[in-house]
Amino acid sequence: MNSDRVDEIAALRAQKKLDREAEVEAREAKEAEEAKAHAANMARIAKKVARIEAGNNTVAEEPAVVEAVAEEPVAKPRAAPKKKKAPAKKPAAKGKTKGGPKGSINK
Fold first, then answer.
1. CB 51 within 8 A of CB 57
2. How many CA atoms lie within 13 A of 62 on its CB side?
3. Sign of the CA dihedral 46, 47, 51, 52?
4. Rounded to 5 degrees, what angle do the CA atoms 65, 69, 72 make?
5. Phi, psi of 104 (to 5 degrees)
């Protein structure tokens, strides 16, 4: 093999090794972040459960807030468009047929 080729292969292997290490670090950082978020969520849930167990589960009902809504003009629904009547078909005239005359053969 060519010595330049061997050097290129060694450089590629070293680069792949660095890439794998970077991927591992990124994955570990992501997992740590997810674990931190999960722990925070579990703490929140535990806090709620403790409050329920203590009997402080009374939810203060807030009076319904009625917002003043400006009256908007309501568009009248359109009437369905009238269907046009198809013109009455005229009866076919006697003696006229569609296509060529009887007995003709396309040659």
1. yes
2. 3
3. negative
4. 165
5. -80, 145
Question: Is the dihedral angle over the CA atoms 92, 93, 98, 102 positive or is it negative?
Answer: positive
- Is it the case that residue 3 has pLDDT exceeding 80? yes
The first and second tokens of residue 106, run together, are 């396309």
List the structure tokens of 49. Answer: 């459960």
Structure-token pair, residue 80 = 């369905």
**Phi-psi domain of 8 (left: phi exceeds 0; alpha: psi -120 through 50; beta: other):** alpha
pLDDT in tens, 46-101: 999 999 988 865 555 455 555 655 566 666 667 777 777 766 676 666 665 566 66
- List CB contacts of 106: < 8 A, sequence separation 6 or more: 100
Q: Which two tokens stand for residue 84?
A: 């046009």
